[in-house]
Structure formats: C-alpha cells, structure tokens
Amino acid sequence: MSAETGFYSIIDYTVDGAGTQRELVDAFAEIQERWVRFHPGYRSARFHVSTDGTRVYNIVHWASEADYRNFVETSDTEGRMAAIQKALEGLSGKAEARMSGVPTYTVIREIGPGPQTTGS
C-alpha cells in the first residue's frame, strides 16, 4: 500500500433518485473543474453514488491538511458557494446536504490486497 495518506473532504448528499444523482455529480464535477482543481495540493475528486439512488459522496483528496487550509483561506469561497447554490437550484429533483460539522478527514489505516491470514 501507498505510504501517502493525504487529507480528504467528504461531501455527502441525499437525493431523490438516480437522475438527480447524475445531475448532482455533473454539477459538482463542473464546480471542481472551475473552482478547485488548480489549487496547490489538490489531488482529485471522486464521486460515489449509492446503488439505490439515494446518496452521492464527493471525496476530495488533498496532498495535506495545510494545502486544504490554504485553499479554504485563499479561494473564492463566496463565488464557489454561489455556484453550489445555483447548481442545487438547477436540479430537476431534490438534494440535501448530510454533512454535520467539518467534513474533513485523514487516513490513519489502510488494508490492501494480500494473502489470507489464518487465525491462531
């Protein structure tokens, strides 16, 4: 496994169906491209949708917490938030943010592929 841990912001939305999932992913991908991806330390944004059509997770990977904090302090937060609000208003269905508190995380452990271990 990689020794690289990085820093993550995990954005969680409840939606009302697969169509809204697709629209939300498209809108948030555009926001990442326009407002976020060029900031130093940005690594990627991955979008996960639940198979039942009710959730969307946007996992934004940063090289470090310092890079994320620099983004928060130096980016056009007002413009980005307005773009998010406009995107949400433009959906054909409903989407509701499900984050509580600050949605930021660090990886502390990762288990990768390998041989099966036997119990003792």
What does this structure look like?
Helix 1 (18-36) runs antiparallel to helix 3 (77-89). The chain has 120 residues and is an alpha+beta fold. The longest helix has 19 residues, at 18-36. It has helices at residues 18-36, 65-74, 77-89; strands at residues 7-15, 42-49, 55-62, 95-97, 104-106. The chain is built from 3 helices and 5 strands, in the order E-H-E-E-H-H-E-E. Strands 1, 2, 3, 4 and 5 form a 5-stranded antiparallel beta sheet that branches.
Strand pairing plus helix content: what structural class?
A: alpha+beta
Task: Name the overall outline.
Answer: flat
Average pLDDT number: 92
The number of helices is: 3
The largest sheet, given as strand count, sense and whether it forms a barrel, is: 5 strands, antiparallel
Q: Encode the helix/strand succession as letters.
A: EHEEHHEE
Please give a quick description of this structure.
By secondary structure, the chain is α+β, with helices and mostly antiparallel strands. Helices cover 35% and strands 26% of the residues.
Name its key features.
120 residues, alpha+beta, 5-stranded antiparallel sheet
Task: Show the helix and strand layout.
Layout: E1 7-15, H1 18-36, E2 42-49, E3 55-62, H2 65-74, H3 77-89, E4 95-97, E5 104-106
Antiparallel strand pairs: 1-3, 1-4, 1-5, 2-3
